[in-house]
Amino acid sequence: MAYQFFHIETYSDAPKRVRGTADHYNSAEQVEGEAAREARYSQHVAEPQPPLSMNFDGLVPLQQLIARRRQLVSSITETLTSATGKIYTRKLRNDAATLYTEIHSHPMTSAEYLADRKANHPEVLRWARLAVKDFQRRMPEGVEAAAVMHLDEGHVHMHILAINAGDPRLDANKLHAGKVAATAYRENNVSEALVSLPKPDLHPLPLKPKKLRPSKNRETQKKRDASHKAALAQWSIDRMRIEARNKVLLRDWEAANNAHLQAGRKARGKTHVQRAFNDALSKLQDDYYEAVGKPCGLLRDGPRRERLSTKEYAKRKRTARKIADELDKMEAASREITLTTAEIAKQQEKLKAWQRDLNAGEDNLSTLAARLQAIGQELAAKSAALEKAEAAQHEKSMRQLQQLSAKEAKLADVQRDLAAKIEAITIREADLASIEKN
To answer: Bias category Basic and acidic residues: which stretches (predicted)?
Structure first.
């Protein structure tokens, strides 16, 4: 096999028979156990081996995801309204799909991989990374997932298990591309369901004979009991006969109705809902081929689908390998361009940083000049105010000096006048002394 293999499915806790089988049933627990290689769910594998955990970014360990799903399922309750209008709550139905899975298979056989694990590991690891990356790109917010790889069956293959933890009912069908498309079509269009043939009118069943009131007379009561017993026996026989006739009527109707519906489906062909479902899955395979198959050198379809000859199929595989090699070269060149672009961007960021520093310096100089100008204006204003104050003070001092000089002159006049008076008094005293002496 040199073509891609990619399958998606959803599961509930209720076992569901696998289409095309008589006694093969799948459930969420069974799928989880098979992925984890639990013994009771791995009997189809000759020598089960522990799975390899894919520890990529965004994934959780498988056992953690299993425990998480079961814990969430057990904690969910639904509020419903009955036909009578009564509101009640119940646990999530066990047939509600709560587990989403994907199976990715690689063309390399497990034996080939294990024969030279060191050489084959990079190719398988790259394929697994691309598949997980594509899965994560398609999933909405709130999805939790785990991935494991098996090397104990025919081909190397990987299981991705996911839960829609962001949904209140863990609705896994909202992650299934085909079911999402079918639901969207149903919601926006008239139903295309075929109308069944009218059911036949069934023969009414006889009423069960009632028991008469007890009699005080033993003989009478004995006869009544015997009569009631005989009536019950006849009623049972009549009922069985009518039920058998009704069963024949229903069987004949069911056969006629199945033929009617089958003819209607054949005449109608696929419904638009089925086309929406198939188209969505076909597009999913196309997108998967672009994201995973082509880069890994895988074909979109196998040889049977196009009825290719062995030579044509070999040629197609060589072409696919050549495309993958060219994509690898382009990817390598893209990485170099990315590195160069990153270096240029780094240098540009440095220039921008320098420019920011320069602009910041210029802004600082402008701010400093403005501050100095403001300080100069403030100093000039203070200087002018100081000069004005000094002039006023000088004028005030001169007035005070003049007043002091006038006071000093007046004081000198007073002193001279006082000295003259003292001198006059002294002369008088001398005269008086002379008079007294004489």
So the answer is: 216-228
pLDDT at position 62, please? Answer: 97
Same domain (yes/no): 69, 105: yes
Note whether 241 and 293 are same-domain residues.
Answer: no
3-state secondary structure of 208: coil
> Does 200 share its domain with 188?
no
Helix-strand-coil percent breakdown of the chain, rounded to 5? 65, 10, 25
pLDDT level of residue 282 (50, 70, 90 thresholds): very high
pLDDT > 50? residue 103: yes
Q: pLDDT above 70 covers what percent of the chain? A: 90
pTM score, whole prediction: 0.62
Quickly state the pLDDT bin for 211 (edges 50, 70, 90): confident
Residue type, 19: R
Range of the domain at 247: 196-270
The pLDDT value recorded for residue 287 is: 94
The Cα–Cα gap between 25 and 120 comes to 35
**What 3 state SS string does 43-62 have?**
CCCCCCCCCEECCCCCCCCH
74, part of any domain: yes
Do 232 and 281 lie in one domain? The reply is no
Q: Is residue 173 part of a domain?
A: yes
The answer to whether residue 321 is domain-embedded is no
Evaluated on CA atoms 97, 99, 105, 110, the torsion sign reads negative
* Residues 126 and 234 placed together within one structural domain of the fold: no
Query: Residue 1: pLDDT above 60?
Result: no
**Which residues, listed in sequence order, are joined to residue 79 by a DSSP beta bridge?**
89
> Would residue 57 count as lying in a domain?
yes
CATH number at residue 92: 3.30.930
Q: What is the pLDDT of residue 148?
A: 97
Q: How many domains does the chain have?
A: 2
Q: How far apart, in Å, are the Cα atoms of 163 and each of 67, 96, 143, 178, 290?
A: 11, 12, 6, 17, 25
pLDDT greater than 80 at residue 315: no
